[in-house]
Amino acid sequence: MRIRARSTSWLRATAAVIATVALVSGCSVTSPNTAADANTLTYAINGGTLSGGKMDIHSSAFQATALVMRNSFDSLVYEKADGSFVPWLATSWQISDDGLHYTFDLRHDVTFHDGEPFNAEAVKANFEHVVAPETASADAASLIGYAETGGFYAGTAVVDKYTVRVDFNRPYAPFLQAVSTAKLGFYSPATLRDNAAQLPAGGPGISVGTGPYVLTEYTPDQSIVFTANKDYNWAPEGSTHEGAPAIEKLVFRILPESSVRTGALTSGQAQIASDITPNTVGQIGDDFSIENVTMPGLPYTLFLNEAHGVFADENVRRAFALGVDIGPAVASIYQGQAKRAWSILSPATPNSYDPSLEDSWTFDPDQANALLDASGWTKRDSDGYRTKDGARLSARWLAYTPVSDANASLGDVVQSDLRKLGFEIVRDNLEIAQYYEQFNARDYDISDWSFPSVDADVLRAHLHSGGYKNGSSIVDPVVDSLLDDAVATSDPAERAALYRQLQQWNAIHVAMVPITVPTAITAYSKIIKNLSFDLYGQPLFYAASLTTTR
Amino acid sequence: MSLLAAARSRTARTRRVKRMPTPALWAAAGFLLLLALSVVLPGLFTAADPVRTDIGAALLAPGPGHPFGTDQAGRDVLARVIYGSRYSLAIGFGATLIALVAGLVIGSLAGLMRRLGDGVLSRAIEIVMAFPEFLLALIVIAIIGPGELSLLVAVAIAVIPAYARVARVHTLVVKRAGYVEAARTLGVSPTRTVLRHVLPNTLGPLLVMAIMGVGTAITAAAGLSFLGLGPKPPTPEWGLILSEGRNYLATAWWIAVFPGVVITATVIATSILGRHVQALSLGRQR
Amino acid sequence: MTGHRAGQARRTGRPVARLAARLVAVVLVVWGAATVGFFSLRLIPGDPVNVLIGLGSVSERVRDQIREDWGLADPLVVQYLRYLGRLLQGDLGTSYRMQHPVADVIGQQLAPTVQLMVLAIAFALLLACGSALLGRDTRTASVAGLLELVAVSAPTFWIGLVLIGVFGFGLGWFPVVATVGFGALVLPAVTLSIPVAGIISQVLRQGLDDAEALPFVATVRARGASSTRLLLRHTLRHAAASSVTLTGYLVGSLLGGSVLVETVFARPGLGRVALNAIVDRDVPVVLGIIVLAAVVFSLVNLLVDLVADRLDPRLAAEQAHA
After folding, report:
1. Span C95-126, pLDDT tens digits
2. What angle in degrees, to the nearest 10, is found between the helix axes of C247-264 and C102-134?
3. Do the chains contact at A405 and B74, CB–CB below 8 Å?
4. Cβ C276 vs Cβ A52: under 8 Å
5. Do C56 and A17 touch (CB under 8 A)?
6. Using CB atoms, which residue from A262, A409, A430 is nearest to B73?
7. Where is the signal peptide, in residue numbers (chain A) (predicted)?
8. Fewest Cβ atoms nearer than 10 Å: which of B210, C178, C202, C235?
């Protein structure tokens, strides 16, 4: 009996402790829609791919790297929304008549965060770092036009202290766009010299650029803190803001769970959240602004690997595309936040999109069945799948974890729809290292991704026989020459015509099945003023400021 | 969890037998019976297809047509939970059975062996126990790749050392009690000794531990599914359903809440049964 | 061999020899874990060079250079011996991904994990004591039993997301986004503590029952000690002694649980490092974590043995024998 009496007092004590803890820590919670500190902004980002050596703009293949690091890294030129270029770190530039030489005149007043001067030597050192074998760059090297087996890029030469010339073996039209991206941004020569091996891991004192914000703290998988660069005075021409940025501190909080990002915003613990998924966008009320930007570049696309298994047969590829009811799936899964894709280029890609492909093909299970019959997949096994010569009509879909909710649901629909045709889809969601292993060996039937890019030349990496992301293993001299011609042409109309031919080629050939045009959804509190967004829908904080009231 | 059962079974001899309230036992048995039935005859409980998507009927709240609602691809959640029982129970029971048998063999071998053999084996058990179970499971999946079967094997391997340890302790108890020596002097064959004396005494506590372990195995598998290392989609495995529904908690709670409740109920039911079995075996020993 | 000697020493009962034998056993377990880890990680399919370069293709020349630089071209035995040699000097190697010393990679993440675990253990003990004492009353025993079962059966990531939704965003009691301060630590620690609390509580309850049935309790009662005193001094001590064997398991389950908790709450820590290292096939880091876990496991076990000796020599002797 007495023991029991004691036990209640124990419980009471426990409750008291818990209540105290709750009270004490409860006090520190901020109320919604106000910044914890007048000049600090907390930004909830997905960022799940940044850890594990993905912080280097020059070597990372992930777009997320460029989007985050943009704050610390400037470019030679700035691309405006209309696709034209204005001076940034370069005051002017000349392209030689044969298209082989790009000469940039640099600003004289730019310094890196570590005090090193920005000059022609720094540009040269950075471009050499991009193409160095130790860097093992995939994306930046592709942007600069470099390939180990003879590409476009020939080298960079210092003309004088503030003039630099980039030389090419063959005309390379996308170069100006390429140098406007963060992936061809500039590290301090000192950090390239001393910290080259640490760049993929990144961090303060390592990821040193010229940008408006200095990376001052980095805790992998938790947060990246940027502090205003007080000396900054080299914004792109035509910027609405000059000098140092107004917001002193940006805290990028890495929150991979989409529901947590949305909750962080709506509860006021973050003032801005990106990568808002369609299934959580409905939870965000009217107190917040929502920016929904259609991404340019390659839409979310399924790559049908022609060099492996059943997709060597064009009939099977066409049956695949006709057998999935894509329209209603996209409408339901993306809840109106993203449109269906019809082409392998997004409508937002300047000077290239072919609108004639819209509504050019419809869900047609009958024709899909007929195509499969025609190719000899006529028998059925005990599970109801088609067979030919005893082998099941089956394709293996390779992806890496974590798979987003939307992509997972789409996969469910594709699998379910094709099952009705007797076509089996096996989905293998692997850990990323294992994925690389099988992807590089092209050991799969289907893979999937989207790749944002403002230049249609993004197709070169995906369609060219030597492209590092040629997921469908396309080897077609016609395609290669169209891509090469497009790269060599600087006339926008001529380039657009060539890219239209490529889009038409895929519509017939069905090497890739475009599914949806991705959108970048960012929601933010109305205390943030003058927030602008780049062409990838990423917030640009340089000109933004915070008000204490809404 | 497994060590908990170990601690419990070790102290069991001195323990007063507390009988479970009978209604709880009946409820647990009834629930497990229903689960078993859903494994064998899922069609008895639902007419819906657990894999076929119906995008026009996505995210429907629980109602007459769909008692548990529908998920983001318009699949019936009840059907997925019912068809999922075979995967989740296969992982739970399969992993536990493998661990039980392997642990029994390794543990009793260690216990019966002379000092050197025992020393080597128990040191080996200790070494593997030094790996946190979850880390061990992750490494096993890295080696054999993700999937239903890998999940089963990974969870099994992770808990084998715990079973082996308990099996060894109980074998030693039997050995010290003199049965083995006596049997040897009487000329009884070693196989017979093991079957007659060692196994019955080690199996009891291990079985109790195993019944408790089924739930832990299902929970561990759910954790691995959450990390994306579980079964291949669209397998309606409970952990995978739970994981796929986690970002819909605020908008469509039913996707993740129902499988969560079923997992918890399964673990509770097996535990209640486990305690009863333990109480029975103690009663018999008395 | 050594295990055998350790057993003998235990039985002879000379404290110094016993301690020495136990220390030898610690070294043995760590060496064993490092060895098992080293060879089993080689079983993971795939070329480590691919891990080092990631996406994209590089020439065979560069691949050979990488193999050379990382010593991957040597026979496995040579690599193993070199690894052991470095380990003896306290060098855990260099991360493939981060190109940082493994000791640094782990060291940087040690503090957040230790903070999380210490608070989680504190919460777990608090919850467990509450539940164990609740369970002593026959009327509330079934409630306690049910709570324990729910605690051990609900998946960790699930508990975490529900707590975030309710206490983080709904009620706004604890910050989820903040990265510093005690408040930010509460929800992750509670999440991690719940399954652990369920287990400790079950064992504690069992231990209390068993202890009460022992003859000495009657003796103590006869001497006129109050129930409270009895409970706290003798019963708890005895119960604790029987559950200290759990600690090894608890260390493992805390580290395992931290993988999920740190993922759900997006916290840095050893769990994340372990998961990322496995996912990225960063073998040196995985090995480093294995070695660390083995050291902690062995030392905690050693400590537990010593404490058990102190608390209840009779029990310790029995355990040593078993």
Report:
1. 887 778 899 888 888 888 899 999 998 999 89
2. 110
3. no
4. yes
5. no
6. A409
7. 1-35
8. C178
Could you report the per-residue pLDDT of C196-206, keeping only the tens digit for each? 888 777 777 76
Whether residue C154 is contained in a domain is answered as yes
Q: Residue C270 belongs to what domain range?
A: 102-321
**ipTM for the predicted complex:** 0.81
- Would you state the pLDDT for residue B15? 43
Average pLDDT of the segment spanning B16-30? 73
Candidate from A256, A257, A434 with C-beta closest to C46? A434
Q: Pick the residue of C41, C52, C55 with the most A CBs within 10 A to test the interface with A by mutation.
A: C55
Q: Which domains does chain A have, with CATH numbers?
A: 47-212 (3.90.76.10), 297-517 (3.10.105.10)
pLDDT tens for A402-423 read: 888 899 999 999 999 999 999 9
Q: Do C98 and A61 touch (CB under 8 A)?
A: no
CB A214 within 8 A of CB A73: no
Question: Do B227 and C2 make contact, defined as CB atoms within 8 angstroms?
Answer: no
Q: How many domains does chain C have?
A: 1
pTM of the model: 0.85
Q: What percent of chain C has pLDDT over 70?
A: 75
C232 assigned to some structural domain: yes
Contacts of C264 in chain A (CB under 8 A): 257, 260
Chain A interface test: which of C41, C177, C185, C221 (most A C-beta within 10 Å): C177
The pLDDT value given to residue C210: 65
Which residues in chain B are closer than 8 Å to C40, comparing Cβ atoms?
139, 143
- Beta-carbon contacts of A192 under 8 Å, excluding residues fewer than 6 positions away, are A125, A126, A129
Distance CA A512, CA A503 (A): 10
In a domain, C262, yes or no: yes
In a domain, residue C237? The reply is: yes
What's the CATH number where C211 sits? 1.10.3720.10
